[in-house]
């Protein structure tokens, strides 16, 4: 499942900054004259100040109403007006609100599965911030859901991991890591569908799992699929090793752990180690593997 953020507490932030901006415009006439374009007349400056006040108010109002696209447009206009007036001390504050508006617009587009618009908002965001991993993360979600953009999405998610670790946002780094894993696990699972996957299917699954390691470390599920693929290809000792690695990583329930025991037991049976296999099948009699494990115990292990 894709997880994204919609900025919160924006109303309070925008109200405070709006007050600061308006206060600066009311009291900072001298600084405006000193910093603005000397070609502007006093009448032009006064007109631009009123326009700035109005566009900023409209942006704050739209943001408080969660109409983020309108808010972003108004804040962009406010920045242009502030630049003309030379209000450098206010530009940064307005940009902060523009950033929050673009995040909100992008997240709303993601929620609506409008990935093209979401991508546009997050790309614009990168012009204003390069230290927020949620930008790369949400951009990655948009790309990975667009046709022919999966690789670009994975690259963006990897950037989210790097930036998240650099700035201490381990939550986003962790979510990006899991989303990358999910992509390759889905490929491996799809390749191994059916009772007797072909060697081409097996190779496709193993290739997906190998590609995963180029981005993130494998987890328990990755080792399960690797063990399953190796078992299907007749590499039983390697299958046992992979499944045991997955079992060591596993932190879930006994029912979920049964799948690792089942791969190990089937591989042991194929290598002729029947006694060990039957002992291992006993640990696989839970959840989805209960019936299959019991079938082995009742039909293959009655003489052990």
From TrEMBL:
Keyword presence, Secreted: no
Family matches, as Pfam families: TPR_16 (PF13432)
Annotated SMART domains: TPR
Alphabetical UniProt keywords: TPR repeat
PROSITE patterns attached to this UniProt entry: TPR
Recorded superkingdom: Bacteria
TPR repeats: 220-253
Protein name: Tetratricopeptide (TPR) repeat protein
Native source species: Salinibacter ruber
């Amino acid at each position: 499942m894709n997880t994204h953020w919609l900025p919160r507490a924006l109303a309070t932030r925008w109200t405070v900054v709006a007050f600061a901006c308006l206060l600066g415009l009311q009291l900072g006439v001298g600084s405006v004259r000193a910093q603005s374009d000397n070609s502007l007349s006093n009448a032009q400056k006064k007109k631009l100040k009123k326009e700035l006040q109005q566009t900023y108010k409209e942006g704050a109002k739209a943001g408080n109403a969660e109409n983020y696209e309108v808010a972003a447009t108004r804040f962009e206009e406010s920045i242009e007006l502030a630049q003309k007036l030379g209000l450098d001390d206010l530009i940064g504050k307005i940009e902060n609100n523009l950033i929050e508006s673009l995040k909100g617009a992008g997240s709303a587009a993601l929620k609506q599965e409008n990935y093209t618009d979401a991508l546009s908002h997050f790309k614009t965001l990168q012009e204003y911030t390069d230290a927020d991993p949620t930008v790369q993360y949400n951009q990655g979600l948009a790309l990975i859901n667009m046709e022919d953009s999966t690789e670009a999405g994975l690259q963006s998610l990897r950037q989210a991991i790097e930036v998240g670790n650099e700035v201490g946002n381990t939550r986003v780094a962790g979510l990006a890591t899991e989303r990358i894993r999910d992509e390759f696990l889905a490929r491996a699972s799809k390749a191994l569908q059916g009772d007797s996957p072909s060697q081409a299917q097996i190779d496709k699954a193993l290739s997906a799992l190998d590609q995963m390691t180029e981005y993130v470390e494998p987890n328990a599920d990755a080792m399960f699929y690797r063990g399953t693929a190796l078992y299907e290809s007749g590499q039983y000792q390697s299958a046992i090793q992979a499944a045991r690695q997955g079992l060591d990583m596993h932190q879930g329930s006994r029912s979920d752990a049964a799948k690792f025991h089942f791969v190990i037991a089937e591989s042991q049976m194929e290598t002729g180690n029947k006694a060990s296999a039957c002992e291992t099948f006993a640990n696989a009699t839970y959840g989805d593997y209960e019936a299959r494990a019991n079938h082995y115990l009742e039909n293959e292990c009655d003489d052990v």
